[in-house]
Amino acid sequence: MNIILFGPQGSGKGTQADLLVEKYKLYHLSMGDELRKEIKKGTPLGKKISKIVNRGDLVPSKITNNISLKISKRKECKNGIIFDGYPRSMEQWIFLKNNFKIGATIEIILSEKESVRRIASRRVCPKCGHNYNTIWLKPKISRYCDIDHAKLIHREDDKPLEIKRRLKIYHTQTEPLKKEYKKQKILYTINGARPIKLVNNEIVKILKNIYK
Ligand code: AMP
Question: Core-most of 59, 69, 70, 193, by most CB within 10 Å?
């Protein structure tokens, strides 16, 4: 069974997905991470994606849909996938529901103010993709990744103008998908403005009915 985690930038989807992966042995498919991997390869496709991602726009659905389908064939996905940052538009949702069984969609709510605050202080390891925060999730050695010691960066698309643009896209294209999830009776909503552990407990409670 597969699940979708969605919410505005900074709501903690990636952090929660990582916790669920450990508990349920699911595959965490972060579309943002997959796109950044493609960019890193420096292929013509990667170069095209890079421009779109850096300015905070959505990559064409044809590209993201191909990625999700390709990844789903891996053996690590046999217990199910946590989709994080996908689908982000109606076109992607239609593709997803036609190709995957979705047991739950979990919305993590966060105010715009808190979202901007969290993203502005987010730092990322360019090597392994691990996220930190300059306020509450500091690395052991300032500015260096705990895992591989690479120097942390502030993502281009995490800068103020780009965050605003991404949040606008979230509210106009991704949030309206809630109507579709509601129709399918798979929508669950939780408050993301609380400590990581509490949010996780609530998600686990929801998933108890799905992963028995
Ligand atoms: P994220 O790491 O989830 O914040 O995603 C970073 C960026 O990758 C987004 O701002 C988009 O430019 C791109 N991206 C991620 N997921 C998708 C998606 N499902 N559809 C289109 N573009 C995406």
Answer: 59
CA 62 – CA 98 distance, rounded (Å)? 14
pLDDT of residue 210: 78
Give the confidence band of 41 by pLDDT, cuts at 50, 70, 90. very high
Q: Is the CB of 2 under 6 A from ligand 1?
A: no
> Exposure of 209 by Cβ count < 10 A (0-12 exposed, 13-18 middle, 19+ buried)?
exposed
Distance from residue 53's CA to the centre of ligand 1 (Å)? 7
Spans of all domains in the chain: 3-111+173-210
Whether the pLDDT of residue 147 is over 90: the answer is: yes
Q: Enter the DSSP assignment of 171.
A: I
CATH code for the structural domain at 3-111+173-210: 3.40.50.300
Ligand 1 atom having least distance to the Cα of 13:
3
Segment 194-197 long-range contacts (CB within 8 Å, at least 24 positions apart): 196/12, 196/15, 196/16, 196/19
Q: What is the pLDDT of residues 77-99, one digit of tens each?
A: 999 999 999 999 999 999 999 99
